[in-house]
Amino acid sequence: MSNYRMVIQYDGTRYRGWQILGDSDVTIQGKLAAVISQMTGEEVSVIGSGRTDAGVHAIGQVANFHLQGNFDERALLAGLNRYLPEDIAVSSMELVDDRFHSRYQAVQKTYRYRIHTGEIPEVFERKYVYDYRMPLDAGRMREAAGLLCGTHDFKSFCGNRRMKKSTVRTIYEIRIEELPGELQLFFTGDGFLQNMVRILTGTLIEIGDGRRKPRDIEKILDAKDREAAGYTAPACGLALLHVEY
Amino acid sequence: MSNYRMVIQYDGTRYRGWQILGDSDVTIQGKLAAVISQMTGEEVSVIGSGRTDAGVHAIGQVANFHLQGNFDERALLAGLNRYLPEDIAVSSMELVDDRFHSRYQAVQKTYRYRIHTGEIPEVFERKYVYDYRMPLDAGRMREAAGLLCGTHDFKSFCGNRRMKKSTVRTIYEIRIEELPGELQLFFTGDGFLQNMVRILTGTLIEIGDGRRKPRDIEKILDAKDREAAGYTAPACGLALLHVEY
User: Fold this and answer.
1) d(Cα B16, Cα B25) in Å, to the nearest integer?
2) Considering only residues 115 to 174 of chain B, which have any Cβ-Cβ distance to chain A shorter than 8 Å?
3) Does the pLDDT of residue A49 top 70, yes or no?
4) CATH topology of domain A2-96
5) Does domain A108-244 have CATH number 3.40.718.10?
6) Which listed residue, of A10, A12, B52, B150, carries a Cα 20 to 30 Å from A128's Cα?
7) Once rounded to an integer, what is the mean pLDDT over residues B13-26?
8) How many helices (H) and strands (E) does chain A have?
9) Whether the domain at B2-96 and the domain at B108-244 fall into the same CATH topology
10) Rounded mean pLDDT of A156-185?
11) How confident is the model at residue B163 (pLDDT cuts 50, 70, 90)?
């Protein structure tokens, strides 16, 4: 049995997220599994490093899958890029140790959130940015970001209110870059809860526009209540950049 | 009467080009005129620096229009960006001399053509590049580009076979930039015939992939026959970058 590891890019706009639902046609995982099965004649289950929500993009999603037969990695890569829809591409494919598991072994993930702050609408990148179109104070947001880093119970930033497992996570870094008419937020951590990056972003925006104070982060973390945090920023601004093992 | 000059960006993917057709709903000019009329209550005709084909994009299209009333430029700019569809934006608006005419007074235009030469499909920029996905020899293309520069009869590069006016144009520069997995061609000239940049690009591609020799350019120009030149590269790779006055 062979274990293949691939890096995947996708424009999540028209998908219901990573994970296969009843109708596999509208998920990234479903599209990948369908093409691999068609090419190899084998039933295949594609394991991703984690789910991405409906509408969220990826530049470096990692996934692996097992095949009984021995298929050439380059042929699989070329075939996938020929038969996948134009909004999904596989950037690399390699044979890896049988024990490699893209979800269990992921140790660090980086997400990027793009906020368009300029006055003129973003025409070409409009599907990959949050069209906020108002200025934000990056200094205030950086102060708040500093308080979010470290190991905390992020229950207040979890979109799943019935989450039964631990909501403790470690954020290693939140970097905020200012570009002309755009703010880019880079989140690196050991893992993120459902909607967590989007709720962190919504909360940082409410701090950047003056509605909340940077110091409010402490109270929000302590509350362990989704209601205490800010709004969930839209999916389109978010992309999974890379996963480390 | 006031004369307004604006710079416009658009993603041309879903439009039938710049120029108003019977159904104004599917052209850039039609969309702009409709919104300006709605805001001002005046019939307006929007004059562009030139037409762009169906599917061609613009980053710096220039247009002007006249109004009887005196409307604030900033209010017009904000209103347009509020009511235009998300694939059209106005980046600037200014009151100009009554005699300014965006077509007659344009003295130089620059177009960019993007060719994706990498093996991995381009997911995020897929609507703005030509998905060629094979290597091209930029050296050969530069040699051919040098022979195209200058004042020539470009009849062989004109998509309109029944063109009655002069097909003589001057190309000031064709610059070819090599990026990872992409070739960008920048064309600067005093004006371009219908489909001319796309036929120039198709011909340069046939030289870059070895099907033709750089020196063939001389024969193609001499032929004054559309059949002598290469194919018309797809619209999606092309964008009007800027217009000079």
Assistant:
1) 9
2) 119-124, 126, 128, 131
3) yes
4) Alpha-Beta Plaits (3.30.70)
5) no
6) B52
7) 85
8) 5, 10
9) yes
10) 95
11) confident
A177 CB neighbour count, 10 Å cutoff: 12
Tokens matching residue B138: 């930029």
Whether the ipTM is more than 0.85: the answer is yes
Q: How many residues does chain B have?
A: 245
Do the Cβ atoms of B172 and B189 come closer than 8 Å? yes
Q: Is A82 on the interface with B (CB under 8 A)?
A: no
**Encoding tokens for residue B83?**
């009511």
Residue among A11, A81, A123 minimizing CB distance to B9: A123
Where do the domains of chain B lie? 2-96, 108-244
Identify the burial level of A162 via C-beta atoms within 10 angstroms of its C-beta, where 0-12 means exposed, 13-18 middle and 19 or more buried.
Answer: exposed
**pLDDT at residue A34 is higher than 90:** yes
Average pLDDT over residues B15-32: 87
Per DSSP bridges, beta strands A108-116 and A88-96 are unpaired
Active site amino acids of B: 53
Tell me which of A123, A125, A133, A134 to substitute to probe the interface with B (most B C-beta atoms closer than 10 Å). A123
* A41 C-beta neighbours (distance < 10 Å), count: 10
Q: Which residues contact B97 (CB under 8 A, 6 or more apart)?
A: B3
CB < 8 Å to B81, chain A? 119-121
Query: What local confidence, expressed as pLDDT, does residue B206 receive?
Result: 98
Element (H, E) at B201: helix B196-208
pLDDT of residue B162: 86
Question: B91 in contact with A at a CB cutoff of 8 Å?
Answer: yes
Confidence of residue A43 (pLDDT cuts 50, 70, 90): very high
pLDDT higher than threshold 60 for residue B8 = yes
The CA distance from B72 to the nearest CA of chain A, in Å, is: 17
Q: Residues 6 or more apart from A111 whose CB is under 8 A from it?
A: A186, A187, A192, A197, A238, A239, A240, A241
The residue among B54, B57, B52 whose CA lies nearest residue B88 is: B57
Within 10 A of A24 (CB to CB), how many other CB atoms are there? Answer: 14
Give the per-residue pLDDT at A69: 92
B positions 51-70 inside 8 Å of A (CB): 57
Residue with tokens 């009333």: B69
The minimal CB distance from B128 to the residues A9, A57, A124 is found for A124
Burial of B184-202, coded b for 16+ CB within 10 Å and e otherwise, reads: ebebbbebbbbbbbbbbbb
pLDDT digits (tens, 9 = 90+) for B138-160: 999 999 999 999 999 999 999 99
